[in-house]
Amino acid sequence: MIGPKTPVLAVLCGDQHPPDMKTIESVAEVRYSGEEGLADALRGADALFVYDFLSTAVPAAWHAADKLRWVHIASAGVDPVMFPELRASDVVLTNSRGVFDDSIAEYVLGVVIAFAKDLPGSLDLQRQSRWQHRESERVGGRRALVVGTGPIGRAIARLLRAAGLKVSGMGRRAREDDPDFGTVHPSADLVRHLPEFDYVIAVAPLTEQTKGMFDATAFAAMKPVARFVNVGRGELVVTSDLVTALREGRIAGAALDVFETEPLPSDHPLWTLDGVLVSPHMSGDFVGWRNTLVEVFADNFERWHTGRPLRNVVDKQLGYVPSGH
């Protein structure tokens, strides 16, 4: 039974409500809201579940958050809610770290193999009914740099290593004995190390330090035969510099799942450039992922409701969950 001290939960979800919320609804007053009604939903709310994790509506509605103690976002990235007022507040922020690790790693392995074996070229020739023999590249022995050493980056590293690639990482701290990457280079040395790698995979969280880190200088430092893969955030890349690098043959190709502007405009050159694979922000979305996101939230809600420590607590100054938390 819902009683007088029942917590109030606001859920930012738009038209698509999260599944499997009945258990939470039995112990909380749940207010489902789209972007326009979020301020009203936040008044008197104790917690906010940002189920629509691509929405940027929270900052504008924050003025109405008069009782809020906890925000949970249904994604690993927290940049849509990482605004100054939230950083400065006592509100606890948690994310959905762990849900997408393996599926994103599978996507990355898939595009690496697609590039090496020219699967897009084979599909194009098949559509033309053309029998054109080509030689393909080996994956084994190629070198990959995973920029971002969180759980998703580690899952990518393990899968690429199992396929025979030689993998290194890039993160805040340099180290030589990492169990998944072996060597981890410091992010400050990105341009220095880029010439060493055949595949560069961007999966870093979006922070002031990582925004635009892949720019003209970075692409000029890469091998002409290198491929760039972005499964992190679109804003990690200066898109115009990437387009120029691809057009001028400074890099051999790119697989892009995230973009500065989403959806990617239909007239954008990335749709038609040679050597580019475009997917609509779906690298982590496996069958049943929405249910899994709610399971993660429901576990944390039960912890929060009973006064136990929350999982996946974000360090609001760093912008991500520190290792070991």
Describe the overall structure.
With 325 residues, the chain is an alpha/beta fold. Helices cover 28% and strands 17% of the residues. It has helices at residues 22-25, 38-42, 58-61, 84-88, 101-116, 119-127, 151-162, 190-193, 216-221, 239-247, 289-305, and strands at 8-12, 29-33, 47-50, 70-73, 92-94, 143-147, 166-171, 175-178, 182-186, 199-202, 227-230, 253-256, 276-278. An 8-stranded mixed sheet has the order 8-9-7-6-10-11-12-13, with helices on one face. It has a 5-stranded parallel sheet with strand order 2-1-3-4-5.
Compile the SSE list and pairings.
Layout: E1 8-12, H1 22-25, E2 29-33, H2 38-42, E3 47-50, H3 58-61, E4 70-73, H4 84-88, E5 92-94, H5 101-116, H6 119-127, E6 143-147, H7 151-162, E7 166-171, E8 175-178, E9 182-186, H8 190-193, E10 199-202, H9 216-221, E11 227-230, H10 239-247, E12 253-256, E13 276-278, H11 289-305
Parallel strand pairs: 1-2, 1-3, 3-4, 4-5, 6-7, 6-10, 7-9, 10-11, 11-12, 12-13
Antiparallel strand pairs: 8-9
